[in-house]
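Same chain as my last thread, 302 residues:
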Amino acid sequence: MEQVTIKNTHLELKVLSYGAIIQELWVMNKKGIKENIVVGLKKPKDYLKDTIFLGACVGRFAGRITKGGFFIKGNQYKVHSEDGIHLHGGEKGFGKRNWKISRIGKGQEPFVILEYTSADMEEGYPGTLKVTLTYKLINNSLQIVHQAVTDKTTVVNLTNHSYFRLDRTENLGEHYLKLNCDKYIETDSRAVPTGKILSVENTVYDFRETRSLKEKGLDTPFICREKELPAAIFYSKNSGIRMQVKSNQPAVVIYTPPSFPAVCFEVQNYPDAPNNKNFPSSLLHPGETYKNEALFIFDLVP
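reply #2:
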C-alpha cells in the first residue's frame, strides 16, 4: 500500500493507493491553525478492515442497486446483494481494490493520478472498465475527476466517499448546510429509491435556506438544480471553515452516519438508475468516456 502527500499554500492532501482513499485533508481554520477535515484512520493498514468506505472511491456503481442486478440489451447481469440490496459495487468494490499510482505532479497545482482496471464480469458487471482518478489541488480547491472507458456496454456510477467534519466538536450542532436542490428522490426504509421525485418544500429535506445539522439522520439523494451553482454549501461556526461542492453530476447523496458526526457529499447519478427508466441513464458504451468532475472549494465564513 502506497501513501502520497501533495500540498500547496492552501491545502494538504494525503492519498492511499488502496481504495484510492483520501486519508487526510488539511485546511486552515479561522485561527490560522490547520485542521484535518475528513474522518480517517491513522494507520494505512487499518483501512483493510474498514467497512464504511472511509474516503474511498466507490464503484463500479456507487449507491444501491435492487432486484439482484440489472438488464442491458435484454441480458441480465446478477450482482451480489444483501437483503435485496447491492451496495457500492459489491463484496469487493473499487474502495477495496489496490490502485496504481501512475503519476504525481508537483508545482502550484499538484496532483496525483491513480488507475484501476476492473475486469470483465468483476462483481458481475460486464466489460473491462479502465478507470482513471485524479486528485488535484487548485488554489483553495480540491478537484476530483473520475474517468472511465469500457469495451462492452456497462453501467457506471463512481464517487468519492469522504466523511467531512469541519471542526473537532462531538456533534454537528455547529455545522450548517445549504443545498441548491428543489427536489429529492424518495427512498424507503432501506434507503432504496421508490422511483418518485418529490419537492423538498415543507419537508425535512428542505435545505434551500441554511440550516443547522443538529438533527441529523440523512441518507438522501438530492437533485442538483444548476451546474453553475454549488450543489452544497457546508460550514462550521466553530472553525469558520466553509466548503462548497460543485459537480457535473445530476445528484448528490447527503449521508450523515449514525455513529459519529460527519457528512458525506456523494456527487453521482441517481441511485438504482439501472432499474428506474425515469432516472438518467447510467449506461457507458464502448467509445464513450464516463466523467464525474467535482470541485470542493474551501474558504472561511465571512
